[in-house]
Amino acid sequence: MANTTLAMMQAIEAEAQAVLAGYELEIDTLKKQAEQDLSALAQAYDQETTEEVARQEEIAQVELERLRQEIQATISANEAAVREALTDRKDDLVQAIVEKVVARYGH
């Protein structure tokens, strides 16, 4: 009877070990699957991020070019306004310079 009980306990233990091994195998399989899924998700996210960065860079380049053209137009307009103001006031400026020279150094 002692042998029978011992044999039965050993059989139960062997079954428990088999069940435990099955669970551990399933856990490992699920863990690997989760890691693969996470890796695939990370790659997809990286791809989306890369594409979005490229789109935003393109938008920024277009905006930068627009701003450069706007600045150039403003500079040109300002230079033209300065030239016009200097041309219109040329006689006044020359007269003012002559008056200052005469006032300082005499006739």
TrEMBL record:
The keyword Coiled coil applies. Residues 13-84 form a coiled coil. Keywords: Coiled coil. It comes from the Bacteria. This is V-type ATP synthase subunit G.
